Amino acid sequence: MTAPTRIGPWEVLKPLGKGGMAEVFLVKGAEGPFEGKTFALKRLLPALQSDVEAVRLFSAEAELSRHLHYANIVEVHDVGHEGDSIYMVMDFIDGRDVGQIIKRCRQKKVLWPVDFAVYLTKALLDALEYAHNAKDPNGQSLGIIHCDVSPSNFFVSRTGELKLGDFGVARSLIEGGADQVMGKPYYLSPEALEGVLTPQVDLWAVAVTLYELITLQRPFQGKTPDEVFDAIKKSRYVPVQQLRPDVPPVIDGLIARAFDAEPQHRYASAAEFAEALMPLYDERVGTPLAISAVVRGLFGTAD
Questions:
Q1: Is 166 assigned a catalytic role?
Q2: CA atoms in the 13 A half-sphere facing the CB of 50
Q3: What is the mean pLDDT of residues 249-269?
């Protein structure tokens, strides 16, 4: 199937990717206030346009995302319909997601600098602190939980922007959306595996992401899904220092707290988690521009 040349007031420049529910295009405003500016347009797959649940999830993502205006979150600028097609237009991040960065580091056998890992994690936590406390235009709490925090949903642009994206399975507790916990299995917390949904779900996934950035491997492993889930429930993982002795012991302590089997013993909020990270990186080293320069070095300027 060929890509469309135009969707609503948006000129399609090229396809960017396709997932299980949606396809993404690079677009340029053909008219109106965004004329000439480039964005990413995410559209529900044509095959799912008559699927009631798919339409509900996509519409919920658009509704939640349009309330989020924060430097470390991919912003949605337009939501529209063209016939039966639902789409949203958002920031185009010209760069890489953290999952791609981790994979490339493994391929090149290059360790990701600890300062960079901590800085990225703090930026991710700042985004979640905002999202968890976001309000609608009337000042009412939205009760947002991302539910799918992972390296593949956090982006580093070529110019140093760090942004959390993909609120596709996010839930609003205010609207009673906690009926089903979704997200990638390796990043689910013990209580999430039992169907319990709180902001702790996101904080646990942040800790998994930090562990991956430092060690280049996932903390909870197994030969089968059941073995992985058992490791998660028992917080069974190899301490960071056993895999990377150059890492300060304090980081192992921080991660151990974040991975405590009892939620009440972990960090109470994204802000508290972020504050614990503050002393662990040199702000003169772990900066967005420095990180983006290393990313360009890993992938090449034209890759």
A1: no
A2: 1
A3: 95
